[in-house]
Amino acid sequence: PDGTSSTPLLTVSQYACKRRTTTVNNNKILTDALEVLAESYEFKEIPGRCLAFRRASSVLKSLPWAVRCLRDTEGLPCLGEHSKAVMEEILQSGHSFEVEKTLSDEKYQTLKLFTSVFGVGPKTAEKWYRGGLRSFSDVLAAPGIHLNRMQQSGFLHYGDISRAVSKAEARALGNLIDEAVRAVTPDAVLALTGGFRRYRGKEFGHDVDFIVTTREPGKEEKLLTGIIERLKQQVSTLFGLLLYCEYNASTFDMVKLPSHQFEAMDHFAKCFLIVRLEGGRVEGGLHGAEGDGRGWRAVRVDLVSPPMDRYAFALLGWTGSRQFERDLRRFARAERRMLLDNHTLYDKTKKEFLAATTEKDIFAHLGLEYIEPWQRNA
Ligand code: CTP
Ligand code: MN
Ligand code: MN
Ligand code: MN
């Protein structure tokens, strides 16, 4: 190497599960721009284009160097003409006309705002937009708009749950959940998953995700309802700890083959919570309408409870990132004739389910090099 070229010496795979992606992003200006376009196509319900921009962004995130000109990207996968044109514009002039136009588009801005509320997805946001609503006060004042319980909590705790959760807060929550788990069953298994399992350098996440199970077969669902009961009873300074709780019972059925849908929800018992965390002050103080003069904050918490023999699949599936998961499944299907989801791995050639007790077992079945959780930030 003569040191004059910044192009990669090793080939970069089209699959995120064959790349190592930490939270250090050397191409943030480019990936932020591509993700704006991905999101706008998601709102427009054009999934193909959305995915193309997400894949392009994900490839750039994995690079240990900064792209300085389009020539640097020669040989990189997943960079289509559209993505390249956007990148070229940014590299030359500092911004992209299409991205700026999207960011100032009223519909994009409104859907972005509405979907930032817990419980409001693209469908509801679109419906409100078509009804002429443009702001939260429009929504809250509109006659005939019914907010479900989740959306009501989403508006009530909007300031807190749209504010990042720090590592210290995640740790405090871990202790709180751990205490509830121990009180229900001493032999329970509790593990941090989701973003906080992937972040090393990064300090913040948007919620805290846990897997909880027990070695006693069939007891995992009781365990989860037990934990919820325990948290409901726990009272801190006159207030309950649980500000919101949606429990989904298990619909898990071992006979089913893995789903072909990438984004399909898994069938394990799970709950989506908003928890009151005492002393949750972060540096810089509390922001938002709820913030002032309190010693607590609301935090979003997800708990999922698979049976112990599904633990490795659930852990791998819930650790993310979403792009990493999508590509694991795509790789399994396209390169190995296998079907992977949060419950199982099925070999279509051998016509059999492959057992796994660790994530490493699953990577090995797929013939993939093991990728550490903090390298899965694709
Ligand atoms: N997930 C899933 N099924 C769900 C919800 C989540 O399989 N019903 C998986 C997703 O693959 C995701 C992970 O669980 O990667 C965690 O989801 P989420 O908390 O939304 O995202 P994070 O990756 O944790 O990022 P953040 O810090 O924003 O929470
Ligand atoms: Mn998360
Ligand atoms: Mn998220
Ligand atoms: Mn989550």
Q: Report the structural category.
A: alpha+beta
CATH-defined topology of the largest domain: Beta Polymerase, domain 2
Which architecture of the largest domain per CATH?
A: 2-Layer Sandwich
**Ions, cofactors and other bound molecules:** cytidine-5'-triphosphate, manganese (II) ion
How much of the sequence lies in strands comes to 5-15%
The domain tally reads 4
Strand/helix succession: HHHHHHHHHEHEHEEHEEEEEHHEEEH
Average of the residue pLDDT scores: 92
How would you write the strand order of the largest sheet? 2-4-9-8-7
Subcellular location: Nucleus
Keywords: Magnesium, Metal-binding, Nucleotidyltransferase, Nucleus, Terminal addition, Transferase
Main location: nucleus
Catalytic activity: DNA(n) + a 2'-deoxyribonucleoside 5'-triphosphate = DNA(n+1) + diphosphate
